[in-house]
Design goal:
Structural class: alpha+beta
Shape: elongated
Helix content: 25-40%
Strand content: 35-45%
Oligomer: single chain
Radius of gyration: 54 Å
Number of strands: 22
Number of domains: 3
CATH superfamily of the largest domain: Porin
CATH architecture of the largest domain: Beta Barrel
Number of helices: 12
Length: 605
């Protein structure tokens, strides 16, 4: 069978040859034809398929289309032989495809506009995965950023509660932040979850030790020794625990082993060994160890504490240095000896309130050598002011004291007990008994802190004019002072101090609550010369209405001091000082101001 496209092409050629093709509005169509009846039976029917519509290639600018009806069959219908007529199929259209090779004319291909291809889809990068909180937390921990580490390691523990590594680092972070009770459960899980985080054993032991669970600390250290985890740190922590259990010889051995395993533990281990010697009364050996620590690492916390201990032991061990004394004499000008009120009308007639005085001060101390961890000092203090004109304001004050001390933890504790007796114009004025424990420690390199408590019982010897003016009282106080040392030799310092005290007096006019803030700078400006500047604010809020003035009294006393100290010799200093004091009170008779200028010499023995 002849293919359809070839058959259609042949038919188109026949039609063109017989002139039965014409062009209408740029289309080529088949004109109606007359078919003789005798030829009707010889004509081959041409049947087109419904969907076989083929575009005609253009010849010049014309398009040849023969349109056929879908499903319609073009056929020749015979009429009776007596009446030949042409039967046309007006609706039958046959689409003819002409090939360039079937016509001598040049056939041009139509311009076909291809639909634009859609742009390729933009390839988006998949979102970056969130960082692993465990890895991020470990990174922060190693950099010392414990607050950031805590957040991420907490997330890591929530994400994977069975991770011993996450438990270890979270516990170690809390330990660094001194949150020992919170650190403990995480470190315990770090050594119980599988696989065990063996690095947690020394950390767990330290936390147990801080919480005074020393037997459990030793068990954790035994596990660390068995696993070979951080041998030097393990030996050092074991020494600390053994000291707490009073096993001093075993502790000394552990400290020695930690130094041998890692030289980085030399300063801290030597300090601990020196403390053991001190507690056993081996003062010379203790001093030598402290000196070695201070010489090797002077700026560290251990170095600063070691220097203090070495100096104290050296004084105790020097023959003839069990006794020490300070004696000074100063010539002063006081602008307001009698505390004349600044603006009270009743004080208008008061004159001659200023005077000059010779002031003598002395302090003596005796410290017997004790072959133990404790120290003992016997003290005596004297203060006397002798005015040129205002003799009835001459003051003589004597203080007797005894101070016991010891070394505890990373600081020292002293407990002074004192008795004071003061006379004015040769008459007994005041007796006072006091107890003032003080704990001093080194919180960081180049710093020292002191925490104090104070109890004082005052008994004024003069009889009060009114019961409400009775000043016999009990004073209780607490305070903290912080020192920042300047320079390697600690020749200068900055000090800040805060105290709060409460005075409960027999007379209601003298009971108050006081708050005191003070700051001081001691700075070396040259060889042998130091300058000192100080400021203090003391606010006293009296708790009762003053019965004489019918108002609740409140005083604010400001004090500013300036001193210049010059070392004339090793043991003799010259001093020039200025003091300004102003009391602002809402009761005029208590408001005053004064200036003191003094120059003197002080000698140490």
């Amino acid at each position: 069978m002849v293919p359809r496209t070839i058959a259609v092409t042949i038919l188109a050629g026949v039609l063109l040859a017989t002139g039965s093709v014409r062009t209408v509005y740029g289309q080529t169509t088949v004109a109606p034809q007359a078919v003789p009846a005798t030829q009707a039976t010889t004509t081959q029917d041409i049947v087109t398929q419904p969907a076989a519509t083929t575009d005609v290639l253009t010849h010049a600018t014309s398009t040849l289309n023969i349109v056929t009806q879908p499903t319609a069959t073009q056929e020749i219908v015979t009429q009776p032989t007596t009446t030949p007529e042409v039967v046309t199929q007006p609706t039958a259209t046959l689409t003819i495809v002409t090939q360039p090779t079937t016509t001598p004319d040049v056939v041009t291909q139509p311009t076909v506009t291809q639909p634009a291809e859609p742009p390729p889809a933009v390839l988006q990068q998949p979102p970056a995965p969130e960082p692993d909180p465990l890895l991020l937390g470990i990174s922060y921990f190693r950099m010392g950023n414990y607050e950031e580490a805590l957040d991420d390691l907490t997330k890591a523990r929530i994400k994977d509660p069975w991770s011993a590594v996450a438990a270890y680092y979270l516990g170690a972070t809390l330990k660094k932040m001194q949150q020992y009770s919170k650190a403990l459960p995480h470190l315990m899980e770090a050594v119980t979850l599988q696989p065990v985080a063996k690095e947690a054993y020394p950390e767990l032991a330290e936390v147990y030790s801080v919480l005074n669970r020393n037997d459990e600390a030793l068990k954790a250290l035994e596990s660390a020794e068995r696993e070979g985890i951080e041998p030097a740190q393990t030996a050092y922590v074991k020494g600390l625990v053994l000291v707490k259990k009073k096993k001093l010889l075993e502790a000394e051995s552990s400290f020695e082993r930690s130094m041998a395993l890692d030289p980085q533990f030399t300063a801290s281990a030597n300090f601990q060994i020196a403390s053991i010697y001190l507690s056993r009364g081996k003062l010379t050996e203790a001093r030598d160890r402290f000196i070695a620590v201070a010489a090797k690492d002077a700026e560290s916390a251990f170095g600063l504490m070691a220097k203090q201990q070495a100096d104290a032991l050296s004084r105790r061990l020097l023959v003839g240095r069990q006794f020490s004394a300070l004696v000074g004499a100063e010539y002063q000008y006081d602008s307001n000896v009698i505390l004349k009120p600044d603006s009270a009308p009743s004080a208008a007639s008061i004159a001659n309130q200023s005077d000059t005085a010779l002031v003598v001060a002395a302090r003596a101390e005796y410290a017997p050598t004790l072959q133990s961890a404790y120290s003992l000092k016997l003290q005596y203090g004297l203060y006397a002011s002798m005015y040129q004109d205002l003799k009835n304001y001459d003051v003589l004050s004597q203080t007797f004291g005894i101070t016991a001390g010891t070394t505890i933890a990373r600081g020292s504790l002293s407990v002074p007990l004192s008795y004071n007796r003061t006379a004015v114009d040769g008459k007994d004025y005041l007796t006072a008994f006091g107890l003032a424990p003080l704990y001093a420690f080194t919180p960081a390199e180049g710093q020292q802190a002191q925490v104090t408590l104070r109890f004082q019982q005052k008994d004024f010897q003069a009889t009060a004019t009114l019961p409400d003016e009775d000043r016999d009282s009990t004073n209780t106080a607490c305070g903290i002072a912080w020192y920042w040392f300047l320079g390697q030799q600690e020749k200068g310092s900055v000090t800040a101090r805060y105290d709060i005290d409460r005075e409960d007096a027999a007379g209601k006019n003298w009971s108050y609550l006081g708050n005191k803030i003070a700051a001081n700078l001691l700075y070396p400006v040259g060889k042998g010369l130091k300058l000192s500047l100080g400021a203090e604010a003391y606010i006293q809020s009296y708790g009762n209405l003053n019965s004489s003035f019918n108002v609740q009294r409140k005083d604010t006393t400001m004090t500013v001091t300036a001193q210049a100290l010059y070392a004339l010799t090793r043991n003799v200093d010259a001093q020039l000082q200025y003091l300004f004091m102003k009391d602002n009170s809402n009761i005029d008779v208590y408001a005053f101001s004064k200036n003191i200028i003094g120059v003197g010499l002080y000698s140490r023995f």
